[in-house]
Amino acid sequence: MTEWLNGQNPHHLQRAGALLKAGKLVAVPTETVYGLAADATNPQAVSNIFAAKGRPSNHPLITHVSSIEQVWQWASNVPPWAERLLNAFWPGPLTLLLEKQSQVSDVITGGLPTIGLRMPAHPLLLKLMQDFELTLAAPSANPYQKLSPTTADQVMAGMGGKISGILDGGPCAVGLESTILLARMDSATILRRGPITAKALEEHLPFKVQSPEMHSYEVSGNKKVHYRPNAKVFIKTTEAILDFLDRPKPGVGCLVYSPMRLKQYHQFLTLPADPIKYRRAFYASLHELDTRDFLEIWVEQPPLGSEWEDIWDRLSRAAVNLG
Ligand code: TXA
Ligand code: MG
Fold first, then answer.
1. Where does ligand 1 bind, in terms of residues with CB under 6 Å?
2. How distant, in Å, are the alpha carbons of 24, 171, 256, 283 from that of 268?
3. Which helix (H) or strand (E) holds 166?
4. Cα end-to-end distance, the chain, whole Å
5. Cβ(290)–Cβ(305) under 8 Å?
């Protein structure tokens, strides 16, 4: 049984804290996507996350803190430049990979010498962590290799029965996973693109940020097959979608953002053309189309440009073609 906990209800928030303190798994809202949380100081609780998700145990987890000062409890030799990013972007969708303190459990880091740290910007989650003095290890709250959830309903659909509770904090404001930045003493490398771009980071740094297309670091989110709905996803040109409007095929759902005169409404979902609003609704729209049991989902190829980089990244991992 998975308890549904309403974040607006103080008793439910208490219950979420009590469950986590008792070593149980509770899905929690963040501004990016919902996380599947366990008390980061309890290795047994953390190891249960892997079983619930069906995720290989060598995949490291992000540790969520509720203040900037806590970074030094979990990480050592923090590069001075990294502090500027913490001050500029926390709380927010930026995860820093730092050298871990020796006492941090290998269960969290997958045996790596680094730890991923993030202070999330969801007021409810921050209150929960602060009131209960909790630091939370949490991957996205989806079964392994499936789409990340941006609502509590999606978490229930994917993880219901496998976890103790879901704290409903409403739809996620950002909608896509955090930017992951490897912070070395004299270099910064983006390992997973996200809402905070290299350009935005560089405004606070005296050097360039690396953002390689491919890299060999252990970032499961960097696996080619990832973030996949059940239907096959294809990236299509606007022309191909317009053509589809004239000659619709059964079993195909479309996700578009260009203005067009729609006819087969149940086969279409429209996203805003603004990248912030598009990002917010992107996963939720794929989830929604997936519940309509289409065999294929055609996604109109988004615009180019740095504000769309992370969306392109997730879309190309979800798709079976490359636009
Ligand atoms: O926005 C987010 O980052 C969300 C919310 C819940 O905070 N979390 C999230 O977690 O997306 P997850 O586990 O689905 O993706 C985190 C990625 C994984 O690909 C993992 O391999 C990588 O971060 N990661 C975590 N710690 C790492 C480390 N020490 N070294 C290399 N990669 C690490
Ligand atoms: Mg994930």
1. 30, 32-33, 35, 59-62, 93, 95, 97, 109, 112, 114-116, 118, 120, 138-140, 177-178, 180, 217-221
2. 40, 21, 7, 15
3. strand 165-168
4. 42
5. no
Q: From CA 48, how far away is CA 18, in angstroms rounded?
A: 17
At 234-280, the pLDDT tens digits run 999 999 999 999 898 999 999 999 988 887 778 999 999 999 999 99
Rounded mean pLDDT of 72-101?
Answer: 98
Atom of ligand 1 nearest to the CA of 108: 26
User: How far apart, in Å, are the Cα atoms of 300 and each of 69, 174, 320?
Assistant: 43, 21, 14
Q: Is the pLDDT of residue 225 over 80?
A: no
pTM above 0.90, yes or no: yes
- Between CA 115 and CA 111 the distance in angstroms is 10
